[in-house]
Backbone:
């Protein structure tokens, strides 16, 4: 069993909040995690999966059923399937407000948050569960496997890379045909959506151009925006906002796009194996997106994340704003002997960060004569970033 980094905070919140919600993409381990939690007070646990007709039948008179189990912690999986539950849960909690009454699991963030926020405000704590992060599975020989396969448990733990990619390809199809169409309940064209998510693989780490996507897909701009919102709300993608600074220069004002899980991206890009990845045109974009996601997974929402690019092409891959409002500039290079363009150092003159880094897969850490620190991804996460988070 791989230890999940959100465990301590979930347990802390279970000891105080009546409801704890764990949201995240399908197949990320939410159910396994919830079933193995040691609920404070050693409360007995009941598990209900709303994708099973038998469990939905138990909740046809939800108030009566749940009142019978008021002394237990009730785990409700895929809770967004029954939005009518939320006001019932609120009523039950207000009658008997004690910690750890319910654990709600969901794979549809927008709907789940909207429905629960209306009914359970002040009663619920939210946690997002993502695929395994590098620090959760860390071993000095595991970086490239984690980068290639990504962190979805079934892919990462597969017996070989071929099986991992096969699982990820199947996941991309079932995500559209089953999750979006049925669980999220959106009226979408499955064929168009599959084409769309595969086309987005060509934009990994690039600035989004909605007009070009609209023209390429022969669908409207509002439909493109809706598809992008669905993917982000389903925890599969991120958009990295541009950083603005009054430097008297024309700056890029459109966000960058990337798939959050590197293995999912590799499957969509039809990258067959690691050797294929090392020769692929998207190698740099893949590594850059992987590093940004691992930093986000470590620092979370306590930091702000941007990129910086001028009209002349000077760029910083990641501008990190720490909880103390300190600015860190990060360049991400696949090579362990990185050659960094002059545009990065020109950007440092514009941004004036407190520190700058070049992050590689495995380079030994050293400081350049200009003050920029070259380091590997693990050392940055466990030593450098930790100092800025104190």
Residues:
């Amino acid at each position: 069993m791989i230890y999940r980094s959100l465990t301590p905070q979930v347990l802390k919140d279970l000891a105080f909040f009546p409801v704890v919600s764990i949201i995240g993409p399908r197949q990320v381990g939410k159910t396994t995690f919830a079933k193995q939690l040691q609920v404070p007070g050693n409360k007995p646990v009941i598990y209900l999966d709303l994708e099973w007709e038998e469990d939905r039948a138990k909740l046809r008179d939800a108030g009566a059923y749940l009142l019978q189990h008021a002394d237990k912690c009730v785990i409700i999986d895929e809770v967004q399937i029954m939005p009518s539950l939320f006001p019932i849960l609120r009523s039950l909690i207000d009658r008997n407000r004690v910690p750890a009454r319910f654990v709600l699991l969901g794979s549809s963030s927008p709907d789940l948050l909207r429905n629960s926020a209306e009914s359970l405000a002040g009663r619920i704590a939210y946690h997002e569960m993502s695929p395994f992060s590098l620090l959760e599975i860390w071993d000095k020989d595991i970086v490239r496997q984690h980068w290639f396969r990504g962190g979805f448990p079934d892919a990462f733990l597969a017996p070989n890379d071929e099986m991992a990619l096969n699982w990820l390809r199947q996941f991309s199809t079932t995500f559209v045909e089953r999750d979006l169409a049925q669980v999220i309940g959106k009226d979408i064209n499955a064929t168009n959506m599959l084409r769309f998510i595969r086309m987005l693989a060509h934009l990994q780490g690039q600035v989004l151009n909605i007009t070009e996507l609209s023209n390429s897909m022969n669908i409207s701009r509002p439909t493109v925006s809706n598809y992008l919102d669905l993917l982000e709300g389903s925890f599969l993608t991120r958009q990295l906002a541009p950083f603005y600074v009054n430097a008297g220069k024309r700056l890029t004002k459109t966000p960058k796009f990337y798939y959050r899980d590197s293995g999912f991206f590799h499957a969509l890009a039809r990258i067959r194996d690691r050797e294929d990845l090392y020769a692929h045109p998207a190698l740099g974009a893949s590594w850059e997106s992987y590093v940004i996601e691992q930093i986000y997974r470590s620092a979370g929402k306590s930091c702000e994340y941007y990129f910086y690019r001028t009209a002349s092409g000077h760029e910083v891959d990641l501008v990190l704003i720490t909880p103390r409002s300190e600015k860190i500039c990060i360049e991400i290079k696949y090579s362990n002997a990185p050659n960094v363009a002059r545009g990065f150092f020109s950007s440092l003159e514009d941004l004036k960060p407190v520190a700058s880094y070049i992050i590689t897969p495995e380079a030994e850490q050293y400081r350049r004569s200009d003050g920029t620190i070259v380091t590997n991804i693990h050392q940055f996460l466990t030593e450098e970033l930790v100092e800025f988070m104190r």
User: Anything to note?
Assistant: The two ends are 29 Å apart (CA to CA).
